[in-house]
Amino acid sequence: MKNQNIDIELHHVTRVEGHGNIYVNVKKGIIEKCEWNISEAPRFFEAMVLGRQWNELHHITSRICGICSIGHTLASLKATETAMGIKISDQDLKLRKLALHAENLQSHILHLGFLVLPDLMGVGSVIPLASSNPEEVKTVLRLHRNANEMSNLLCGRTTHPQRLIPGGFSKIPSMRELTELRNKLKNSISELQVVAELIKSVAHRFPDFARETEFIALTRPDEYALYDGDLASSDTGTAPVNEYLSFTNEYIVPTSTAKRAKHARESYMVGALARLNINFERLAPLAKKIAEMFSLKPVSHNPFMNNVAQLVEVVHSVEDSIRLIDELEAAGLQRQPDYHKPEVKVKAGRGVGAVEVPRGILFHDYTYNEKGICTKANCVIPTNQNHGNIELDMKALLPNVLGKPEKEIELSLEMLVRAYDPCISCSTHCIRVHFV
Amino acid sequence: MKPKVAFFDFAGCEGDQLQVANLEEELLTLLGQVEVVSFREVMKEHSDNYDIAFIEGSCTRLMDEDRLKQIRKNAKIVVAIGSCATIGGINCIRNYKDLDDVRKTVYGESARLFDTYAARPINAVITVDAYVHGCPIDRDEFLHVVKSLLLGKKPDIPTYPVCVECKKNENVCAFERGQFCVGTVTRAGCNSCCVNEGTICWGCRGLVDNPNENSHKEVLIKYGLTVDDAIGKFRLYFGWQEGKK
User: Fold this and answer.
1) Does some domain include residue B126?
2) This prediction's pTM
3) ipTM of the complex model
4) pLDDT at site B108
5) Which tens digit of pLDDT belongs to each residue from A98-131?
6) Total number of domains constituting chain B
7) Which residue in chain A has the smallest CA separation from B42?
8) Is B91 in Cβ contact with A43 (below 8 Å)?
């Protein structure tokens, strides 16, 4: 080990969304370089939206990311609605929360079933699993399809929603459709238990690793915060959302097209594990049981447990969606006219929208002039907030795995990156390991 | 032997590859017909030996042209998937702005580190054999194009505007509702999915071949809309097609 020389140059890390690279260089057992950087082409959304109208911004910024397009749309709408003082009804609020759950389900199931499971099962992709574990793969596919159908029902699309518009919805589902959805969600619980058992049976492959860090997520006293809440840091406590810039402190590193962020320490973590660490008490009952099954409780400093936290959140989203549909039913679903276009009084102002999306807290911040034209925009993306933390975790993990064959080191580092479920399209508004 | 296929992405949101993953059970059927040799989003393995290359995203910097040319060299058939790849898509909004300003807006003092040029569709750099339009692509249309290619046929892609489908779906016209819509000049094939959901056609499938611009102008006049209304919407997806390069 003392004489080990390692030269890893992993370009475009696979099974993540976007292009990222890992560079590791070890000479005679001494780490000379351990870097995580992003090579995805930058996309300049904050400049693209300047001069555009208030009722187009959610459509444009949805395109930042195909996987979290519902989250981007919601953060965008909330920013616009805050800027113009637009209120949405309690019914629309519940429907939006359902839309967000749909995306969390869609994204987490995709990540766990298609991107993480192959590592745990020792294969390169889900394709060989389709023949070796056909029943499990079919279950994952079915759960994923249900989540897609749920997105479709709430948003009119599985990707890049249409029904979500400033002030509410252009079209809403019927109570009958929502009742059918509730049945499907109820039926999925036993299937989720099967998936949980499967992951549990291979969970020992997640490295036993911990590095203390700061966690940031939305929080609220009455529920597991996803659609809204105050900012919360595990180090410094809570603050209102419009103070987000003092939390995110974005900075640029020359080797990377994605920005990074830091708050109370050198880096912080956002996402399912951060949410669970901060809001554990407000998880739904069955979700808590799943966490117990994996001995996951706050505060966990093992980034690999983010995968398990996603599984816990999947169960929470199912339980909470059932609750929301029950409430909509109890209140009596109010119909709205076809092609609904809520009255909006356009005015000048600035608004910040923060939403917990699958990979963590997302901010959209817009300023509009009196004509409703966007004059300033800022989007802070979860994956960008995680990049710094990923690199510091890599640096802490590397000494633990030195001495192992290069391929194994490579896999450990890749698994670490994948645990964060990075969304690089988002963050450049990537992943390869380079051992150099 | 099964044809080998590969997926690649450039500047885009990867929402189109997601639609392929979203084929669910049909994906398993498709995997019976083709061998996927490269799909970075879902698999670790990679090979440069492939017959069909599916490309998502726009080309937005010179350094990406070499990668595109290499893909063209390796593949027998190149298919552009999604608006960013087929028409340049929403990325082309920035082509109307000064690109130095654009870079400075996002990256400030460090702008020079981030190379970029006007966003463009894939066929601005290499020859493209087939297109799957839309933002995101429609899963059924993707399957139709793949099936056609496997059978050696030309995919059947509509050459009429979204209006035709929208009328068939008996939607109330967006113009009648006081909204501006570009379904009059946008290529059909989406079954007017956005209007069906209560909004407007945004133009994501690009301008139809030979758009009837005169009749579009008549529509504008009839509903008291101005050229400014039109320009805003035309600049969402049609930037490259309208010659903004």
Assistant:
1) yes
2) 0.94
3) 0.94
4) 74
5) 999 999 999 999 999 988 888 898 888 888 888 8
6) 2
7) A15
8) yes
Q: Which of B17, B27, B31, B42 to mutate to test the interface with A (most CBs of A within 10 A)?
A: B42
Residues of chain A with pLDDT under 50: 428-436
Measure CA A219 to chain center. 16
Parent domain of B184 = 162-237
What tokens were used for A77? 């709408």
**B131 and B172: one domain?**
no
A149 neighbourhood in chain B, CB within 8 Å: none
Burial of A212 (0-12, 13-18, 19+ CB in 10 A): exposed
CATH number of the domain to which A333 belongs: 1.10.645.10
Tell me the C-alpha distance between A365 and A354, whole Å: 9
Contact assignment for B106 to A44 by CB distance below 8 Å: yes
A47–B196: do the CB atoms touch at under 8 Å? no
Identify whether A73 is part of a domain. yes
Q: If you search the block for the tokens 């001069």, which residue do you land on? A: A51
Helix (H/G/I), strand (E/B), else coil: A428: coil
B194:A14 CB<8 A:
no
Amino acid A2: pLDDT? 63
In A, which residues are within 8 Å of B237 by CB distance?
none
Look at residues B81, B115, B150 and tell me which one is the last residue of a structural domain.
B150
Residue B184, token pair as written in the block:
């009059």
Dihedral sign, Cα of residue B136, residue B23, residue B4, residue A125: positive
| Mutation site, A45, A339, A411, interface B, largest B CB count within 10 A | A339
Residue A255 lies in a domain: no
Whether B134 is in a domain gets the answer: yes
CA angle A369, A372, A374 (to 5 degrees): 65
Q: How many CB pairs under 8 A join A and B?
A: 176
C-alpha–C-alpha distance, residues A237 and A124, integer Å: 41
- Rounded to an integer, the average pLDDT of B225-244 is 85
Tell me whether residues A339 and B106 touch, CB distance under 8 A: no
Given B150, B172, B201, the domain boundary residue is B150
3-state helix, strand, coil in chain B (%, to 5): 40, 15, 45
Helix (H, G, I), strand (E, B) or coil at A216: strand
Q: Could you tell me the pLDDT band of residue B113, with boundaries at 50, 70 and 90?
A: low
Inter-chain contact B41–A17, Cβ cutoff 8 Å? yes
Number of domains making up chain A: 1
Check: CB of residue B243 under 8 Å from CB of residue B172. Answer: no
The alpha-carbon gap from B148 to the nearest alpha carbon of chain A, in Å, equals: 24
Q: What is the DSSP letter of A271?
A: S
Three-state SS at A10: strand
* Residue A60 to residue B21, Cβ atoms within 8 A: no
pLDDT tens readout for residues B16-64: 999 998 887 788 788 889 999 988 777 878 889 999 999 999 999 998 9
Q: Which residues of B175-201 are buried (b: 16+ CB within 10 A; e: fewer)?
A: beeebbbbbbbbbbbbebbbbbbbbbb
Q: What are phi and psi of B76, to 5 degrees?
A: -80, -40
* Count of other CB atoms within 10 angstroms of residue B243: 8
